[in-house]
């Protein structure tokens, strides 16, 4: 341990294996003081139990914790699934908490936890480069992390590969007692190889509200619990990360949702989100100033496009998603292409809504495709001649309102022709066509 009260400037650890052997009283390695330290080429293992972490930077319960300006490189933090499982799993493999700030974490590997393989929901800004998380026990409900990466701070996360979490590969989570802010997530790769045979479980979200009391595990006055079930996660400010439902009162409402852990603040009509199933990236309600760029996912996961990137509750205007990737962007304010969506077969003349890639049948007759009247700014649509007969039977693309590059229509008049464009209120702009 690098103690906050000891100063400890410089120093660090390198080229070691640290085996905790089932330690429950604290992490195998903990840095809550000192700066300009280097921790490199470490294998850190087997600190276990609820509330624990294998490798921790910072200390939530120590007001003097101050671990800033450090370098963490090539660290593998793991709980051995051959020795431990279920409730023995630590909350996190790598945890950054209060007092951990302004540091660089390069090529970490985090394996087998219960809440998040890599967790940063208190502390300061970090640069996290090429992290890889996975859970060897997936899909064992008690042996897989809820999230691969959970971040509430203005971290810069580049090139993350996240495998086989239970509820979301990456979660832009609420901070301890307030909404999260400022995360920058660049080129993440989402994978769920362990469930690819059957496809990822369908995502479920319920945005509602209820009354929180500090120290109480009951959320009271909940107006609706439709679709919620025991074992699902409840998220919101003041609710511990990964808190789950252990009971729901019977109707008629208002209802009480009982949680596994107590709330950390008192608030009336607090916004909460109940989630089940799996989504790739989950953005918590009210998250501000976040940017998600160039998301891609393993096709074998069979994640629905609407669950690749999902916004809970209310979206802040300052949070933006940039293509190219898959996502449901209906509640996000700023979205920019190119964005790839699943293909929808369109039999001739149609008005589009969520058919973002329209595959048009022109084998029998010409077709008119009407673009929606007021989609989200930046939302992108592609129209294709999938039967290869548009040279004979043209496809006319017509906005419900406005123009396409100043013209009232765009015509696809060549076999296997296509048009791709995005909405730039009050007009449409062409990205590519042939």
Summarize this structure briefly.
The chain has strands at about 10-25, 30, 40-45, 55, 65-70, 70-80, 90-95, 100, 105, 110, 115-120, 125-130, 130-135, 145-150, 155-160, 160-165, 170, 185, 190, 205-210, 220, 235, 245-250, 255-260, 265-275, 280-285, 290-295, 295, 310, 320, 335, 345, 350, 355-360, 365-370, 380-385, 395-400, 410, 420-425, 425-434. It is mainly beta and about 425 residues long.
Structure characterization notes:
0% of the residues lie in helices and 43% in strands. The protein has no helices and 40 strands. The chain has a 15-stranded parallel beta sheet that branches. An 8-stranded parallel beta sheet has the order 2-4-7-11-14-17-26-29, with no helix packed on it. A 5-stranded mixed beta sheet has the order 32-34-36-39-40, with no helix packed on it. Strand 23 (245-248) and strand 24 form a beta hairpin.
Radius of gyration (Å): 24 Å
Count of β-strands: 40
Q: How much strand?
A: 35-45%
Task: State mean pLDDT (0 to 100 scale).
Answer: 85
Range of helix content: under 10%
Number of helical stretches of at least 4 residues: 0
* Backbone structural class: mainly beta
What kind of sheet is the major sheet? 15 strands, parallel
Distance between the termini: 62 Å
Which geometry do the CA atoms define? globular
pLDDT < 50 runs, ≥5 residues: 324-334, 336-342
């Amino acid at each position: 341990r690098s103690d906050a009260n000891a100063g400890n400037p410089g120093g660090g650890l390198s080229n070691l294996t640290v085996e905790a052997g089932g330690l429950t009283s604290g992490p195998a390695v903990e840095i809550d003081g000192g700066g300009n330290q280097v921790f490199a080429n470490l294998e850190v293992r087997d600190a276990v139990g609820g509330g624990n972490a294998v490798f921790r930077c910072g200390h939530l319960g120590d007001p003097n914790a101050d671990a800033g300006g450090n370098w963490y490189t090539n660290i593998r933090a793991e709980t051995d699934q051959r020795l431990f499982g279920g409730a023995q799993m630590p909350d996190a493999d790598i945890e950054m908490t209060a007092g951990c700030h302004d540091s660089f974490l390069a090529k970490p590997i985090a394996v087998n936890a219960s809440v998040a393989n890599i967790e940063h929901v208190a502390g300061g800004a970090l640069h996290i480069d090429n992290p890889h998380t996975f859970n060897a026990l997936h899909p064992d409900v008690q042996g897989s992390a809820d999230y691969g990466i959970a971040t509430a701070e203005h971290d810069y996360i580049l090139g993350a590969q996240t495998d086989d979490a239970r509820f979301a590969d990456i979660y832009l989570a609420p901070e301890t007692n307030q909404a999260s802010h400022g995360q920058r997530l660049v080129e993440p790769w989402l994978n769920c190889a362990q469930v690819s045979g059957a496809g990822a479980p369908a995502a479920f979200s319920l945005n509602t509200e209820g009354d929180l009391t500090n120290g109480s595990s009951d959320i009271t006055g909940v107006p609706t619990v439709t679709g919620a079930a025991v074992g699902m996660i409840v998220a919101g400010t003041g609710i511990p990360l990964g808190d789950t439902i252990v009971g729901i009162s019977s109707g008629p409402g208002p209802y009480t949702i009982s949680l596994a852990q107590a709330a950390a603040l008192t608030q009336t009509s607090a916004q909460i989100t109940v989630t089940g199933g799996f989504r790739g990236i989950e953005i918590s309600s009210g998250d501000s100033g976040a940017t998600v760029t160039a998301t891609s996912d393993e096709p074998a996961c069979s994640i629905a496009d609407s669950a690749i990137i999902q916004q809970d509750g209310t979206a802040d205007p300052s949070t933006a998603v940039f293509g190219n990737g898959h996502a449901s962007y209906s509640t996000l304010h700023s979205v920019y292409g190119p964005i790839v969506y699943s293909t929808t077969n369109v039999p001739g003349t149609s008005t589009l809504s969520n058919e973002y890639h329209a595959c048009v049948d022109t084998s029998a007759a010409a077709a008119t495709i009407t673009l929606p009247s007021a989609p989200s700014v930046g939302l992108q649509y592609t129209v294709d001649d999938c039967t290869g007969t548009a040279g004979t039977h043209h496809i006319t693309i017509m906005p419900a309102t406005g123009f396409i590059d100043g013209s009232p229509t765009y015509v696809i008049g060549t076999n296997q022709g296509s048009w791709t464009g995005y909405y730039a209120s009050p007009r449409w702009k062409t990205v590519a066509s042939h």
